[in-house]
Amino acid sequence: GQIVYSIAEETERGASVGNIAKDLGIDAATLSARKFRMITGSSKQYFNINASTGALSVNEPIDREQLCELKSVCLLNYELVLENPLELYRMEFKVMDINDNSPSFPLSEYHINMPEFLSPGARFTLPSAQDLDEGANSVQNYTLSPDEHFYLEMQTRGDGSKYPELVLKKALDREQQATHRLVLTAKDGGNPPRSGDVPVIVTVLDTNDNAPEFEHSVYRASILENSPSGTLVVQVHATDLDEGPNGEVRYSFSNTTSADLQRMFSIHPHTGEVTVNGVLAVQRPLLEMLIEARDNGAFGMSSTAKLLVEITDVNNHGPEITITSLSSPIPEDAVPGTVIALLSILDKDPGENGKVTCQISENLPFQLKPSLQNYYSLVTSELLDRELISEYNITITATDLGSPPLTSQKTVWVQISDVNDNAPVFSADAFNVSVEENNPLGAFLYQVSASDPDIGENGRVSYVLRNSTVAGSALTSFLSMNLANGSIYAKRAFDFEQLRSFHFQVEAKDNGSPALSAAITVNVYISDQNDNAPAILYPTSQNGSVAVEVVPRLADEDYLVTKVVADDEDNAQNAWLSYHLAHSSDSTLFQLSPHTGELRTTRSLRSTDFLKHKVVVVVRDHGDPPLSSTVTVGILLADTLPQALPDFDDSGEAPPLLNATNIYLIASLACVSFVFAAFIFFLAVIRL
Question: Which residue ranges does the record assign to the Cadherin domain (predicted)?
Fold first, then answer.
């Protein structure tokens, strides 16, 4: 809620403003019981509330001009805080201006020097009056005492402000009258109106008929409020059409510029540079000064320009955090949105530097919600859990929007009271167990673990296997479990070749009332052992006889004799097979591929080769240790399949020592040797 009152300044003490209980719809009889209090940032308490009737009255008269200076709207902000339940109301008092200040001029009298040769129409700037009142109660018009040589005319500057000018109506004659005494009157628009007078003394001079002229009628500048002494604000420039000393311009602050501003700033008389001369101890964001340019003629002429200096606020006030109300401890089952504390956060800087953002750590189950202006409510944002965190130190960080920003922190200690609300929690989403096959009976497989943050019986956890089947049999025929610590044991040996994996669920239950429970899936993976030797599928022998392969009598090189095919029931490297020749009746005739098991000839067969051969092939896996199997293959060199296979117990049968082919070869070699010897003998005879 918010309510606005209007009150005229200087209202006497005890005057009634309103009835806060009636205006806000509050039972006045409950104000004392609800510990009402008024909060304000002002140093004085201007208003009182009667605790019995709720009547709001003036405690101290208000001087609007002292309180708000030159602000167009003067507001006093109060907050009314009530407890049981906690409520906050905002009260705004608009202080209305009355015409209690008369216009005044900075000096008691003003002097103007005028050359006698000036033509009618010449203009001279007159001083502006100041009135602390606002609006219609401020200065509205000026009047000039009647004079045949002068009249008054109002002019408007570039920023819209008006000022009086003295206009020459009739040429002056110093010999007839050297001095003219005028009275300038400033009137405000109050009812009744107020006025202020100042004498204007015009001295008629001879010579120097041109006054300096500024480049701009209004100069604007902006500086930081913490600018050091010597900082350049602006450089003004005026020109004078006269020559010599009459055209030399000197700069100074006009007499209408307040003494405080002349102490804070200085102006170089020759360059026109305006610099900071001290600490800028002002509360107004815009300062107004008049700069005078005067020539060095015997009868110096001058003109003025307005300088508007905007004081840019520097962020030199940090936010102030005040805890207005706090509720602690709170139960852990408090619903989200429960109000814990009410905070007031203020920053004395104006503008963006006074705007504040407020936050707390993101990992806390609390949040800040804006309430009325400059107020925040600290509320729960989610369900609490005392077993996880029994108390919180909530650090509230307030940061303004200045550059660089300033930050303030306040810590609120909140305790959490306990309720029974936690089920057991496993340390993982699922457990994976690996066990080698052929394990001993009763072997320890795994220990599941669940934690319950509750205390006492509510935190004591027991474990049980949920009913299920594995490979058509009850789970309890495979496993057993320790109810107290969750250890799982094997009740039988596993065989990888029959069962490679299975899963089951374990339930953890606390001892609370009612009991809370949780379940988890346990995946059991059975790893392989090298417990199966390779099985040779081809070639096979029957009744212990040797497997026989028939090869053409004159087969070519790389002829495929046979391919040994084997299989291993194990897995992975335990089933990776390689083939090796353990024995061969002729090691130069056959070769075996270690990867494919193909038995091939290493060269073309000859008629002189044995007709029978025997090789022993070893098939070996890559287990640790490796297992192997062997097969004996009998090889018969024949072009046709014989009716009866020979016996391969011996290594082979030798061919005749001499045959027709061998005789032909011996004869050919002898003839070639004889011809070569005869040729050598013939060459020797010719040489001799």
Answer: 6-105, 106-214, 215-321, 322-426, 427-536, 561-648
